[in-house]
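Re: weekly structure request thread

Next one in the queue (348 aa):
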Amino acid sequence: MKWWNVVGLVVACVVLSAGLSSCRRSEDQEKQKVVELSYSIFFPPSHIQCKTAEAWAEEIEKRSNGKVKITVYPAGTLTKAPQCYDGVVNGLSDIGMSCFAYTRGRFGLLEGIDLPLGYPSGLVATRVATEMVLKYKPKEVSDVHVLYIHAHGPGILASRKPVRELNDLTGMKVRATGLSSKIVQSLGGTPVAMSQPETYEALQKGVVEATFCPIETLKGWKQGEVINSITDTSVIGYTTAMFVVMNKSAWDRLSPELQEVFAQVSNEWVDKHGQAWDQADEEGMVFINKLQREVIKLSEEEKQQWKDAVKPILDEYITKTAEQGLPGKEFLADVKSLIEKLSTKAGQ
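Done, posted below.
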């Protein structure tokens, strides 16, 4: 072999080796590339819904084989509860969890989920809320990618002084958000708008005399410490729908494989959040009993009076959405039908 052929062969081997090394480095770099996302949550770290959300983030990381890492910012440390949705839209956080009700008037169709329709449990409310959003795909949430929705069990009345009948609510200052403000008004009370993180101190100082909330709140937010009785108003049990949404640009940057991971895990976490709400309600009742707070049951006559009192809210929703060109009547009929169907199926 001529000497120049030997040199050429050596050069070719060096080039090939360098090329292979470069490919391996490129592959290694691709493997090491991690999508880092921020997740803003208004619940405190100790709350079961925050823990359930953290478990969701961990499962995403696990099933993506570490290709996605989600940093959770609880207790509104990244964006406060009322600003969470816009924070996701504007990229202040990649993912956000908060209540539609904290931005009253913005989510005209979805306000129907929160109406006093007699939700029996958090699991039913969560399934209904997610299914309705996926079915109707309302324009009002088109500026984000919806991962899933969850919703608490039936809202009850917790107060500093006993409420044994509807007349006891007349003029009482009651903490409420979104449509629950209208519920308070229809029952004769005076609604005071505020988020959950503000409510403990407001009750403690007498700024409000009562709050409409799921039973879990009395433990999860420690509000049972600053009330003296609860009234079982589940006959008009409302819920509060809570979104888990993602910035559209952040979603679009995910590969199809990672998007599928998010979709699968989110679908599984619908029931996990619903069950967590019900578990929290059970723990909330144990907490109330331990504090020896009075639990008041309404008579059948009183129940009917409360139902009659809130009926105009349902009628108003239908009228208002029709004026906005939204299918509120159909939406509400679907919600009622789904509550009945899921309640019967669950034996509730």
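Residues 229 and 293 are 5 Å apart (CA to CA). Residues 9-16, 25-31 have pLDDT under 50 and may be disordered.
Next request, please.
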